[in-house]
Amino acid sequence: MAINWFKYSAPSTFYALAGKLIPWFAISAAMLFAVGLYIGFFVAPVDYQQGEFYRIIFIHVPASILSMFLYLVMAGYAALGLIFNTRLSAMMATAIAPTGALFAFISLWTGALWGKPMWGAWWVWDARLTSELILLFLYLGYMALHSSIDDPRRADRASALLAIVGSVNVPIIYFSVKWWNTLHQGSTIKFSGTSMHVAMQQAMFIMLAACWLYAIAIVLARVRSVILERERQTKWVAELPEVRA
Amino acid sequence: MKELTLFGMLKLVVQRDMTLAMRRRADVLTTLIFFVMVVSLFPLGVGPEMEMLRKIAPGVLWVAALLASMLSLGRLFSADHQDGTLEQMMLTPQPLAVIVLGKIIAHWMVSGLPLVLIAPVLGIQFDMQMETLGILILGLLLGTPVLSMIGGIGAALTLGLRGGGVLLSLLVLPLCIPILIFGTAAVDAVATGLSPVSHLSLLGALLVLALTFAPWVAAQALRISME
Amino acid sequence: MTGLDIWMRENPLTYVWLGSYAFALLIFVVELVLVRHKRKLTLEQIRLLREAGEED
């Protein structure tokens, strides 16, 4: 097992592996999206309090969860890259950031759209939404730092450190924002207190899986471009069929 | 020659940086003036109604302190970086973290402490009461060093980069939000008759956390930037 | 904004679909296009590099 790991930590082998995996992840993501949306819209019943509006959660909640999860994964790869000095780990961290940021953005947007029918305002300083906004800032800061540094090695290592510092801060930020929110009796965007209907839970879970698979597919696709760029001077890249074409 | 202890090294670095800062008194003053100006902009923007100003005062003062500290952080390492002193510092047998801590302490004494001292005057402009002013100062006293320390990490990461100052703020401000929240919450607590102790202790805890880790992280960041 | 409010309450599903899902779909499509575009550019860049190298 240990040997296999290190084989795939070489950019050239990983490039090939990723290329083979992407279609599988993409197709399963698409199928799960279809199933999830079907259950979410046609099987799950209308909510007692929120009517049809609650159906936003089937994209809002997975997007939120994924934006947070991706940040941790990104920080994990960043840490691996710093500790073991593996180039591929750093490349993965860079590839994850835009996807994480976009999920955070979707979470914020859908959160606002959910808030409007519930609270009458496009934005309420709900603790979770506010933390999500700060998470978006952390992603943007990471990407800004990485693109400001010309030397790729320094860029990778500096943004890796930033990602790790950020991930340590995320629980502190979340806790303090929650405190701040209750202090000021802010509104909480929450699903109805009653337990969720089984179909709602199913739809939520399926959509979460769909987003997760989509994220893997798109990150793998992005990291392939990153690998190509970093390894452009090497022989194995020069001999790739897509380059020779 | 007498060998230099860690504490001796710290003292040396602090003294050196303070001396250098004193030679460029203008830099120190501009941070202070910026702080005063930003605070004064708010009443101009939102109107002079005392009731409202009293409510927003802690928030305004804290945000202005945050921004003013950000401004001066770019200078933390840049001068030494440009004349090669930073490289020398990285080659000394003493841990780089100690040197970094010394520089951050000096930076705070020159950019953070003056803000803390002038804040009560500005607070009075916002009709803040005596007890709230006291808690404000205490909070700033605990919080501004943390700002300097987190800022030190940011300054190390953005060393020598174009667009450095704004990028630095972009990186550091989200990380400073908990301090902002607890600092203002402490003042609000006193204003409504509750105890500010929990908020202030959280600030204290963050200070201890920062003191323990930030200099070391900033030193790592410096090494990354200087490779 | 009350016109929007009324429309929203009368067409909740359309609101949800257009506002959230269509939007999310748009983001995904944009992301996909960006990734593919980046790949295209990178491949072109490498080809140019190869040709420049082969001229020596």
Structural write-up:
- The complex is a heterotrimer of chains A (245), B (227) and C (56).
- Chain A is mainly α.
- Chain A contains nine helices and no strands.
- Chain A has one domain (22-44, 54-244).
- Chain A starts with a helix and ends with a helix.
- The model of chain A has no long low-confidence stretch (mean pLDDT 87).
- Chain B is mainly alpha-helical and 227 residues long.
- Chain B contains nine helices and no strands.
- In chain B, helix 1 crosses helix 6 and helix 7 runs antiparallel to helix 8.
- The model of chain B has no long low-confidence stretch (mean pLDDT 91).
- Chain C has a domain at 25-56.
- Helices cover 93% and strands 0% of the residues of chain C.
- Chain C is built from two helices and no strands.
- Chain C has helices at residues 2-10, 12-54.
- Chain C is rod-shaped, with a radius of gyration of 22 Å.
- Chains in contact: A-B, A-C.
- Chains A and C meet through helix 3, helix 4 and helix 7 of A and helix 2 of C.
- Main β-sheet of chain C: number of strands, strand sense, barrel status? none
Number of E strands of chain A: 0
How would you describe the shape of chain C? Answer: rod-shaped
What does the overall shape of chain A look like?
A: globular
Count, helices of chain C: 2
The poorly predicted ranges of chain A are: none
Number of strands of chain C: 0
Q: DSSP helix count of chain A?
A: 9
- The stretches of 5 or more residues of chain C where confidence is low (pLDDT under 50) are none
Report the order of strands and helices of chain C. Answer: HH
Question: Which structural class fits the helix and strand makeup of chain A?
Answer: mainly alpha
Q: Give the largest chain-chain interface (CB within 8 Å).
A: A-C, 35 and 27 residues
Mean pLDDT of chain A: 87
Radius of gyration of chain C, in angstroms, nearest whole number:
22 Å
Largest sheet descriptor of chain A: none
- Rg of chain A: 20 Å
